Amino acid sequence: MKTLVIGTGGREHALALALSRDAQVTEVHAAPGNPGIAAFAPVHEVDPMDGTAVAALATELGVDLVVVGPEAPLVAGVADAVREVGIACFGPTAAAAQLEGSKAFAKQVMAAAEVPTAMARVCETAEQVVEALDTFGAPYVVKDDALAAGKGVVVTDDRQEAIDHAAQCGTVVIEEFLDGPEVSLFAITDGETVLPLQPAQDFKRALDDDEGPNTGGMGAYTPLPWAPDDLVAEVCRRVLVPTVQEMARRGTPFSGLLYAGLALTGRGVRVIEFNARFGDPETQSILALLRTPLSALLHGAATGSLGDVGLPQWAAESSVTVVMSSAGYPATSSSGDVITGIDAANAIDGVDVIHAGTAEVDGQVVTAGGRVLAVTATGTDLTQARERAYSGIAEISYDGAQHRTDIARAAAGSGA
Ligand code: AMP
Ligand code: GLY
Q1: What's the 3-state SS for 309-349?
Q2: Does the beta carbon of 309 lie inside 6 Å of ligand 1?
Q3: What ligand is nearest to the CA atom of residue 152?
Q4: Nearest CA to ligand 1 atom 2
Q5: I want to staple 96 with a disulfide (CB 3.0 to 4.6 A). Which of 143, 238, 254, 274 is the partner?
Q6: Domains of the chain with bracketed CATH
Q7: Distance 272 CA to ligand 1 centre (A)
Q8: What integer is the mean pLDDT of 138-148?
């Protein structure tokens, strides 16, 4: 099978890497890709938001499967454009990607499907905002209705900060605060069959001990030794299957990756958000342990034949991913700083250095964005996977490099 991965980030590098190690895959291409992907696969210039251009590239390359990584092209209809030229595409239609593209839409679907989620109000005016904030009380949760690359959500005890954030957005969703550990559970679906992947945990805040602002994600690990045994079955039954059924009932079936961001509250599981694509950096850790050929899952979802694939199989190991960001992330980011030590990190047993925001300039790899790299390591347990990931981090340097030191620490300490 010939494949083409669309996107530039760490998620796309992890997907391309897993496809390159898949015996059923003969060719992996990426567009636009990044220097990490370019080390093992041809990369092609394309505007990932331009569905016609992506479809033309896929046709020219003669690929059997296109995988659209990020949410913005999905919401813009890039997967629709690829399917229109008769090529199988992993990723939902623009209509179905509204599950991520509009938080208000996602709330409507959850209400119709009776999926447990935070109580919420959609607000258009400053008066509605103040009333909703005072109804739910602190901590305040204010979400931009539109896509905001992980930065549209403010959770704060400061009422004025909540009001100010709402004023900067158009439509906002204000909701009740959900207390409890967060879990990312991904499912691959063809619109009917739903295959859950192994749960992972993401670290959203910029600084150790969950301090600092929300980011796109600073690290991840899987499996979750502390999670209840029936978590995956329960989330399938109460969240994933009803959501997929409701989308089909509406005439906008969802195929691709349904990402449920969950809070395990004292009153049970609640959905924090849906995404319409693989999570980043959870995907780096999850794919490192996947033993089922990734191409079978993605192609099965893209062609409506996932029922033939069977439940995903996993290595009985653990995987930890630690993100290295550039100075100022997430408020700002720097670029052009020379990165050294990537090869030394890659040489460590079980370690893959995944590129996210890098560029190649004059033969040198330099920083080019907020999240720069992710070091993913596998190990027999979380303790070994952590040790390897942080050994990899120690090899890599560039001006202003930042990372969290506590990724998977508590879970490893719990005896995993
Ligand atoms: P989202 O983009 O909706 O995933 O929100 C980003 C992050 O904000 C989540 O991962 C949570 O850490 C936090 N968050 C969002 N909604 C809530 C909520 N209702 N209660 C508590 N924390 C939340
Ligand atoms: N890791 C969070 C996300 O991908 O949205």
Answers
A1: CCCCCECCCEEEEEEEECCCCCCCCCEEEECECHHHHHCCC
A2: no
A3: 1
A4: 150
A5: 254
A6: 2-90 (3.40.50.20), 119-175 (3.30.1490.20), 181-308 (3.30.470.20), 318-413 (3.90.600.10)
A7: 6
A8: 86
